[in-house]
Specification:
By secondary structure, this protein is mostly helical. It has one domain. Helix content is 76%, strand content 0%. The chain has helices spanning 3-19, 24-31, 35-47, 50-68, 70-86, 92-104, 114-121, 124-147, 162-174, 182-192, 197-206, 208-225, 235-262, 266-283. The relative contact order is 0.21.
Length: 284
C-alpha cells in the first residue's frame, strides 16, 4: 500500500466513523495498535505534520456537515438575525440558539478531564468496553420508538425542554470516550427525549458543528507546539485527505438520515459489540 492509498483510507475511515454510530475515536485507538498503521503513519510523519493532516481530515468532515445541512443552518441564521433586528427575544431563531447552547454546555467540561480521557484512549481494555456499551445503547435505541408509540413524537428540536437539551449535550460529551459514538449517543438521547428518528439525526449533527470546529482549532494550535509543525506541507496529500474524508462523510450523512427515518441503528450496535468482543479476544 503506497502513502496516497493509505491517506485515502484514513480519510475514508474518518468520514465513515465520524458520522455513522460506530465511533471514530474508538477505531483510531484500535488502529494505533495495528503494525501496518504504525508503518504508514510513521512514513507520513517523517515528511509531513501528522497533526496538520488530522486537522485536514476534521475540516473535510466539518465541511460535509455544513454543506449537507446548509439549508437548516441558513434558516437558523436568518431567523436569529430577524429576531435581533425586531428585538424579538422570544422568536424562533433565539429559542433555537438557546436550546443548541444548552446542549453544548457539557462539552465545555471536557478540557478539565483531558488526562483521564487520554488514559482510556491508550487502553484497549477501555476501548473494548466502550465499544460494547455503544452497541448496547444503539440496540436499546431501536426499541425506544416502540416505547413512545402512545405519545406523539416531536418533529422539531424546538419542542425540547431545557432538561432534554442538556441531557443530549451530556450524551455528546460522554462520546469523547473512545468507542462511544457521538452520533449514536446523541441520537439515542434525542429518541429518549421524544424526538422522532429523523429529527434526532438532524439535531445530533447541528450540535456537532461547533464541536468539530473546536476540534479543528484545537489541533491547529497543537501544530505550533509540536516538533513536526515546521515540516513542509504536501498539498497533494492534504487535498487527497480532505476529499476522501469529505466524500465519505457526506455519503455517510445521507445513509444516516435514511437510517434515522427507519430508526434502524441496531446493526451498528451488533457491529460495535462484536468488535469490542474481538478486541478482548485478540488483544487482551
Amino acid at each position: 500500500m503506497n502513502t496516497i492509498i493509505f491517506i485515502i483510507f484514513l480519510g475514508f475511515i474518518q468520514g465513515v466513523t465520524e458520522f455513522l454510530p460506530i465511533s471514530s475515536s474508538g477505531h483510531l485507538a484500535l488502529m494505533e495498535n495495528l503494525p501496518f498503521f504504525h508503518q504508514y503513519s510513521a512514513e507520513i510523519s517523517r515528511e509531513f505534520s501528522f497533526t496538520a493532516f488530522n486537522v485536514i481530515l476534521h475540516l473535510g468532515t466539518l465541511s460535509a456537515v455544513i454543506i449537507f445541512w446548509k439549508k437548516d443552518l441558513l434558516e437558523i441564521l436568518f431567523q436569529i438575525l430577524e429576531d435581533l433586528k425586531k428585538g424579538n427575544f422570544n422568536g424562533k431563531g433565539i429559542k433555537k440558539i438557546l436550546i443548541i447552547s444548552i446542549s453544548l454546555i457539557p462539552v465545555l467540561l471536557i478540557p478539565f478531564i483531558k488526562e483521564h480521557i487520554e488514559y482510556t484512549i491508550h487502553s484497549l481494555k477501555w476501548v473494548a468496553g466502550f465499544f460494547i456499551l455503544n452497541g448496547t445503547l444503539l440496540i436499546v435505541s431501536h426499541q425506544l420508538p416502540k416505547a413512545y408509540r402512545k405519545k406523539e413524537a416531536k418533529t422539531h428540536f424546538l419542542e425540547l425542554s431545557n432538561k432534554s437539551a442538556l441531557m443530549i449535550g451530556i450524551f455528546q460529551a460522554i462520546a469523547v470516550l473512545p468507542g462511544i459514538s457521538r452520533s449514536g449517543s446523541t441520537i439515542t438521547a434525542g429518541l429518549i427525549s421524544g424526538l422522532n428518528g429523523k429529527e434526532s439525526v438532524r439535531y445530533s449533527f447541528i450540535i456537532s458543528i461547533p464541536v468539530l470546529l473546536a476540534a479543528a482549532i484545537f489541533e491547529s494550535m497543537e501544530i505550533g507546539r509540536s516538533e513536526t509543525g515546521n515540516q513542509p506541507f504536501h498539498w497533494d496529500w492534504l487535498l487527497v485527505g480532505f476529499l476522501s474524508s469529505f466524500t465519505s462523510g457526506y455519503l455517510s450523512l445521507k445513509a444516516l438520515v435514511w437510517i434515522g427515518k427507519k430508526t434502524m441503528f441496531y446493526p451498528f450496535g451488533v457491529y460495535t459489540i462484536l468488535l469490542g468482543c474481538l478486541i478482548i479476544f485478540f488483544f487482551l
